[in-house]
Design brief:
- By secondary structure, the protein is α/β, with parallel strands linked by helices.
- It is built from 21 helices and 15 strands.
- The strands form three sheets. The protein has a seven-stranded mixed sheet, with helices on both faces.
- Strand 11, helix 10 and strand 12 form a beta-alpha-beta unit.
- The chain is globular and about 70 Å long.
Length: about 525
Amino acid sequence: MMRVLLYDGGYETFAVQYLLANLRQHGHEALLFFDNSFVVDYLAQDFPFQELFSLSCAQVAEDILAQRPQVVGFSMFTMFYQRYLGIIRALKARQPELMIIAGGFQPTLLGERVLASANQVDFILLGESELSLPPLLQALETHGRDGCLTLAAAALPGVWNRAPGEGGGLVQRGFSPIPQELDEIPFPVKELHYGYNPRLAQIYTVIASRGCPYVCTYCNSATMNKVYRGARARYYRVRSVDNVIAELRQAKERFRPRQVMFFDDVFAGQRDWLVEFAVKYRQEIDLPYYCQTSPLIHDADSVRLLAESGCVQLEFGFQSANAQVRKEVLARTETNDGMALLLREANGRGIFTELDLIANLPGETEAHLEESLEFIIATRPKWVNLSYLQFHPHTPITATAIQTGLLGSEDVERIQEGRHTTSMRLVAKSNLGRRHRVLPFQYFAAFVFPAGLARRTIRWLDRPLVGAIAARFASFFLYFSRILHSYLDRRDFLVRHHVVRSMTAMRWIVTRKVFGP
């Protein structure tokens, strides 16, 4: 059996936690290095003194090697791709024989690029890895690294590497076998993450499904749905209610969480599932929970079921209040009336409602922004998550952005290398002008102030001098207003959780820097 360490950072990642359970199931020694650094926490990307509260790649490598792993694995996201490469280079510089395995979105979509990056990654796994990682580890035990480089696809399904020898080509072995029955997968390992940051245990994070049934043009799900179809596998799969409840019962007994966070891309996508869940969750778990979902699959009755089961914080993806933009740019088919109905129903049942909107979309006009502001004033969500468009590799909206001049063709390379982080809530790093930097203030006014005052405040902020001053404080305002609001409304527990776990992360980083590993 092998001593395998998985790297994770910022916030707990399900891919890592499920693979830790998978490693234990197959008898391997499963280790974790959880990087509390702010540079790998997307919620802290605009935080002042970010580098101060982050470890260097060399320090991370030192801490990883102190655990004496034989294999180190990374689940790679595009946003932090350069960080992963920096850590891997530091590891290989100190211990060249250490085997590096990578999985996740980046290797799945850009496998050849990952393997070519400084020639430091030994093997990549395409797709979910529960059924491809164990055969690779067994082969490494039997044949060693060099012996695995030329094995047939049947021996290492879904595993790619470079062929041996100078200038060796790519050895491709197709796509990993994809778990279709999620109930057969062991529950994720959480306690290793909690050991690094005990505050994480206050909210138990769980997923009731994998993937997403939709193909929104700006999201990785559109690309992954296409990839999974090519591999003749379903991307969107749902666990049974009983399986989810069993995991949560175990979590209550072991970790005593205060709340639950469902991290599904689309929570409760099947009505029969929600009807069963609403009864069993209330009877057996009965903890307040957060979820995010799509307005396409919900109505007044399903909102009632969510509220009665214990949902206190509900996030809807909407992205634009302009129907033409949603249909032609984003490939979304919600209606404004349908979204307004859901917000009214959820608000009326005491749920803290969050609405997601994206600015800086291809073809965006001033009228589109005004339409979103008026929609917020009319519907009164409890919070609006304003994001700036983030480009991911191979997403359809990238081609649209090039056609409309929002991107140049040279930007595609930067996107694939993870060097084009222009969005999310990263105001200082968005490279956007005053108009977009004023939006956080205007959106806040739209859902907090009475309608008349909200419109006057929005017009006031449109004045050049006022807007120029406000734009300089956009990042601070995003943090301050969100945190303050969460302490004024107790239902908004998730933000308070991020505050306390971030403070714990800060202490951990400072202690590590001062006293060493």
